Amino acid sequence: MTVESSHISRRRFLHSLGLAVPAIAGLPLASMGSAVRGPVTLAPDLRFISKELPLRRRHEWARVQPNPDRLRPATAAGYHRITLHHAGMDVIRSTSESAVVSCLDGVLGGHLQRRFGDVGYHFLIDYAGRVWEGRSLAYWGAHVSGHNEHNVGIVLLGNFERQRASRAQIQSMQKLVGLVRDHYNIQPGAIYGHIDLGRTLCPGRYLYPQVQRLNQMA
Ligand SMILES: [Zn+2]
């Protein structure tokens, strides 16, 4: 799938995803887009999440702007699956905001080093159960090789081959997955662990059973 041919249709696409496209004063629509460089100004409407679950937006924690030239815009068909991950590096039980932000910076920095346009996941959940926005839902993620289109990526900070997720982390995962599933009308059976789609241990042996249970949630 390539980038949409006109920015008017892109605007319509984004509206269909429930994403707001801020108007840029003085610029006709046709001049927006590839000629415009600099920070991504898209502000997805995530009230369907933030009404129910405290959500830290990307701009509240990330010091590096996404590079839109390396991101692929989501299309009108939206999202029809969700994939869960673990960060998979160190055991993480930090709950202080500053410690968590440095973990998030580490994930983002690692992905930028791999020349991703932004952190690969759409949402990140810390050990305290806080939910942090990652890559805008206006763009496909970069979290499962060959399966990123239409696939919301959620990562839990920690290494669940070596530790268990906290109760708060599991509860936030369940709530977030439920909200995203309902918003995009994602069908039963379409919630995966990374291991279901690729050769990896992710999301780890202690988390995977909880991920499988998500498909049975009401
Ligand atoms: Zn993974």
Structure description:
This protein has helices spanning 7-16, 47-50, 97-113, 167-184, 194-197, 208-214, and strands spanning 19-20, 43-44, 55-56, 81-86, 123-125, 131-133, 151-156, 191-193. With 218 residues, the protein is an alpha/beta fold. The structure holds zinc ion. The site of zinc ion has 4 residues, from loops. Zinc ion is lined by residues 85, 194, 200, 202.
List keywords for this structure.
single chain, 218 residues, alpha/beta, Lysozyme-like, six-stranded mixed sheet, two-stranded antiparallel ribbon, globular, disordered N terminus, binds zinc ion
Instruction: Determine the structural class based on helices, strands and strand pairing.
Output: alpha/beta
Strand coverage percent: 5-15%
- Per the principal axes of the C-alpha atoms, what is the gross shape? globular
Low-confidence spans: pLDDT under 50, at least 5 residues? Answer: 1-41
What would you call the quaternary organization? single chain
Task: Report the end-to-end length measured between terminal Cα atoms.
Answer: 33 Å
- String of helices and strands: HEEHEEHEEEHEHH
Summarize model confidence as the mean pLDDT: 85
Largest sheet: 6 strands, mixed
Q: Nearest-angstrom radius of gyration?
A: 17 Å
Tally of helical runs: 6
Major beta sheet, strand line-up: 3-6-5-7-4-8
CATH class: Alpha Beta
What is the CATH superfamily label?
A: Peptidoglycan recognition protein-like
The helix content, as a percent range, equals 25-40%
Which fold name is given in CATH as the topology? Lysozyme-like
* CATH architecture grouping: 3-Layer(aba) Sandwich
Number of domains: 1
Count the strands? 8
Give the ligands present: zinc ion
